[in-house]
Amino acid sequence: MSYNPIKNLNELKKNGRIIGKANYVFTPEISSSIGSIHGSLFKQRESVVMGRDYHNDSLMLKRAYTSGLMSTGINLLNLSDCTFPLLQFTIRRFGASGGVYFSGGHLFSEDVGIRFLDAGGIELPQSEIQKIIESYNNYPQQVRRVDPNDIGQITAIPQTADVYIKSIQQFVEKKKIKKANLKIVVDCSYGPTGKITPLLINDIGVEVIALNTHYRERSSSPVPSINTIRNTADIVKASNSHLGVCFDVDGSRILVIDENGLEINYEDLLMLFITFDKRIQKSKSNTIITTPSISPVVKNFIEDCGFPIKQVENYPGEISRQIREERACFAAADTLKFYFTEYAPFSDGNFILLKILEIMTLQNDLLGSLTRGFPKGTKINKTIPVSSELIENAHNRLRELADEKGYKYHDIINELKIIQDDVFTDIKVALYRNAILLSAESDEKEKAQEMILELEKIIKEL
């Protein structure tokens, strides 16, 4: 593999973040330069929290970034490997001026991305990211260098996860949850979640069967993969557990499986929280924020429940900023992210899980029953059988096809949501058979049918 130098940092801008193939396009030299540019945006001696996922390429780029940031006189609070919500929590707890997180994401990929955060733990807006990019393209004109005695310091903060575990459970009725004698299955997806979630769930008195809590090198499959999701569902049924969840590798969202081993979709989870969360129910004068691609049925459901609704594009950090601007009581993105504003203006998979456990406890019912009666939209559905060889990497292949066709889409762990010509189409791998499931919704039925036929043809060519 040879070095492929970039001429402009805009080449690495993707989906509002700086992302590139580690050590090939996104090199340590680039990361160090970005660190010195980012550090120059703060006042000397301010503090920044930094973290990463488990992978060595993220570690390498984070260390290079560290040298650049220190050279500008900025102090670093080092979380080492951590979940993204833990980093966001730490920024707020320590009153830091910002943060940075390196992660390869949940797909099989040699790409690593940087996420920049402000003092509230919210990702920087596109305008601020563009300033960093423009400064890099004019490097080192806007970089501050300090005397050797003023170089920034690195401080380890190893007990932060313990503080996080104790703090997050204070927002739910943990004593009642403990008395419910629940048992759940948690797939930690080989990420830093494995060091936190089993301890958190055990701490509130819920029996937990924890899977994939260790580090594993990247394979050719996304994480979680359809096989790990199926495994979680099978263990839920075999162990008579009340719930199963599969975490995204950065810990910010979860895929939810009910007591019957069936996946609960985003729309049903959204309606579950609006219907049964006590704090949301008491805040009907406050706005609920969603993305524009939400189903019309769910939009009507929210408005019928008495909530004003505002739709916001799901750019990095944008929903969080709108929560503050609108003083919203709740927000949700159809990437399976849910924002409980009494806790924080960002999505945290652990907090989502705690809220589900609280609702199940207070309603004295299981998730499959609680979500069964919610309204469903009128959709065009299609099941496409595929080979077992394709299933394991189907999610990555579907993403590649969506990129090739220029479709706008959201990545929802085990599915894609294609947004094309006012048609919303979900593409997902079936949980209990080797098949791809298509489901399209539109105000114009003919458009939905055309989209199904178009995608069916593409998938069969795989």
How does the major sheet shape up? 7 strands, mixed
The end-to-end distance, rounded to whole angstroms, is: 28 Å
- Unreliable residue stretches: none
Which strands sit side by side, in order, in the main sheet?
Answer: 1-2-6-5-3-4-7
CATH class of the largest domain: Alpha Beta
By CATH's scheme, which homologous superfamily of the largest domain applies?
A: Alpha-D-Glucose-1,6-Bisphosphate, subunit A, domain 3
What's the shape?
Answer: globular
In terms of DSSP E residues, the strand content is 15-25%
Q: How many independent structural domains?
A: 3
| Helix content percent band | 25-40%
Give the CATH architecture of the largest domain: 3-Layer(aba) Sandwich
Helix/strand/pairing category = alpha/beta
Task: Find the CATH topology of the largest domain.
Answer: Alpha-D-Glucose-1,6-Bisphosphate, Chain A, domain 3
Write down how many β-strands occur, each being a DSSP E stretch of 2 or more residues.
21
